[in-house]
């Protein structure tokens, strides 16, 4: 394969990593805004959604162009396919950040915060660590950061049900908590889906680096 192809692929990989951190940042900032009732920060997350979509579309187009122009094989082709699949997952993670940010104004207006929902911040911390380690494995071309993704995803799944039980308790204590309780459950659902996307990305990175397909769930 030509040097020009590898130069373009390396450049695209670097830009893609920056895009991955952009999507991660939307999730992190949205949860921080939710935790603190920070409507200004939530507004900044919402303002990034168009840029997220623009970047996602741009990567899809550039990656498909690389295939059409150079017809790569073996590891080069795996790298492009992996990046296309990761693009879809990172876009969804950024969008879940947007969805969480939309909940911030009603939370802040009702005076709610996450102080009593101890499992939700813990869940968010694990999910963000999963995003970080998938991006690290992609960047360093080393699978070791994603070897325990399955165990972390199991923990996230368990925490989702813990959040549901917590929310149910608060809703039973006072019917005025029902709407916000449902929002807590929805945030847990968003985080659980982000964890699933991390597992999917981990599978693609593993295949890209080793040529071996594994299942992470």
Automatic annotation (TrEMBL):
Subcellular location: Cytoplasm
Residue intervals of the PhoU domain: 18-102, 121-205
UniProt keywords, alphabetically: Cytoplasm, Phosphate transport, Transport
Biological process according to GO: intracellular phosphate ion homeostasis; negative regulation of phosphate metabolic process; phosphate ion transport
Signal peptide boundaries: none
InterPro entries associated with the record: PhoU (IPR028366), PhoU-like_sf (IPR038078), PhoU_dom (IPR026022)
GO cellular component, as recorded: cytoplasm
Superkingdom as given in the UniProt entry: Archaea
Record's keyword annotation contains Disulfide bond: no
Function summary: Plays a role in the regulation of phosphate uptake.
Record's subunit section: Homodimer.
Similarity annotation: Belongs to the PhoU family.
This protein's name: Phosphate-specific transport system accessory protein PhoU
Organism: Methanofollis formosanus
Lineage, highest ranks first: Archaea, Methanobacteriati, Methanobacteriota, Stenosarchaea group, Methanomicrobia
This protein's encoding gene: phoU
